[in-house]
């Protein structure tokens, strides 16, 4: 079963070799290919802070990963990128995954996959021998081009898409997660509702972004560094108040001095 659907009406999509777009069989909407990837959003829908952040990410794709490796320990005066990623990978509960009863693959979705820096960690934590499809989407073509250069992507499926209108069927994914962007989304509640919609019931949904640890003492340097890193948000915090009404098993914890991990299920 194809999990990608039209974001206008959630109808089936058709693609013929040689075509430059996917066509919805229900409403006739055409979704073009950009850089060889299906583009499942309308340009007019990317506005405000979303458009600004895309402009930044399109401009620095090759610098993004080295910057993260350098800046996490520099700004926090401790910690590491690896420790941060291992922390939130544990909340995905990948070790509890089992083969689907229908014989199909397990499906894992990363919303705002960026350069794909989480993919090696994700693949290393998956139980051996399980059939898996890893899906990633992002609005930044520059970041996705970096992601396409990563080795070992036999089971990775990429497309351009907006977190506020995910181009997937309901209850399609066995795990859903997002790292490092939701604080700048124009509508956090809509994005969280979409993640919940495409996740199977009971699936852990994990969201990570900046929040200054409320239980630690911070120097002036820490506060200034955090403010500089979160210039786009006046009050960076875990968006618990934006969770869908049917969210349960909600857990918020600090993954590091500057980052929270929010996990919930529906």
List the helices and strands and how they pair.
Layout: E1 13-14, E2 21-24, E3 30-34, E4 37-38, H1 49-59, H2 61-76, H3 81-90, E5 106-111, H4 119-125, E6 132-138, H5 141-148, E7 156-160, E8 175-179, H6 188-198, E9 205-210, H7 220-229, E10 248-254, E11 259-265
Parallel strand pairs: 5-6, 5-8, 6-7, 8-9
Antiparallel strand pairs: 1-2, 2-3, 3-4, 9-11, 10-11
Keywords:
266 residues, alpha/beta, Rossmann fold, seven-stranded mixed β-sheet, four-stranded antiparallel β-sheet
Structure description:
This protein is of the alpha/beta class and 266 residues long. The protein has one domain: Rossmann fold (3-Layer(aba) Sandwich). It has 7 helices and 11 strands. The strands form 2 sheets. A 7-stranded mixed sheet has the order 7-6-5-8-9-11-10, sandwiched between helices. It has a 4-stranded antiparallel sheet with strand order 1-2-3-4, with no helix packed on it. Strand 8, helix 6 and strand 9 form a beta-alpha-beta unit. The longest helix is centred in the N-terminal third of the chain and has 16 residues. The protein is globular and about 60 Å long.
């Amino acid at each position: 079963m194809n999990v990608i659907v039209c974001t206008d009406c959630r109808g089936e999509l058709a693609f013929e070799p040689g075509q430059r777009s996917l066509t919805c069989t229900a409403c006739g909407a055409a979704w073009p290919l950009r850089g060889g990837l299906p583009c499942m959003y309308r340009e007019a829908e990317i506005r405000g802070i979303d458009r600004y952040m895309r402009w930044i990410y399109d401009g620095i794709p090759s610098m993004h990963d080295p910057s993260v490796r350098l800046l996490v320990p520099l700004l926090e005066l401790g910690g590491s990128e690896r420790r941060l990623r291992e922390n939130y990978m544990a909340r995905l509960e990948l070790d509890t995954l089992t083969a689907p009863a229908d014989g199909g693959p397990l499906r894992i979705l990363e919303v705002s996959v960026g350069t794909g820096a989480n993919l090696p960690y994700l693949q290393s934590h998956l139980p051996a021998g399980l059939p898996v499809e890893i899906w990633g989407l992002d609005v930044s073509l520059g970041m996705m081009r970096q992601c396409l250069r990563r080795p070992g992507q036999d089971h990775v499926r990429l497309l351009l898409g907006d977190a506020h209108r995910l181009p997937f069927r309901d209850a399609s994914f066995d795990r859903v997660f997002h790292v490092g962007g939701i604080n700048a989304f124009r509508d956090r509640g809509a994005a969280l509702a979409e993640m919940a919609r495409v996740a199977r019931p009971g699936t852990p949904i994990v969201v990570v972004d900046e929040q200054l640890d409320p239980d630690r003492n911070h120097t002036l340097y820490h506060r200034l560094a955090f403010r500089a890193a979160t210039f786009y948000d006046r009050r960076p915090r875990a968006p618990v108040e934006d969770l869908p009404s049917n969210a349960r098993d909600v857990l918020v914890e600090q993954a590091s001095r500057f980052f929270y991990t929010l996990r919930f299920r529906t």
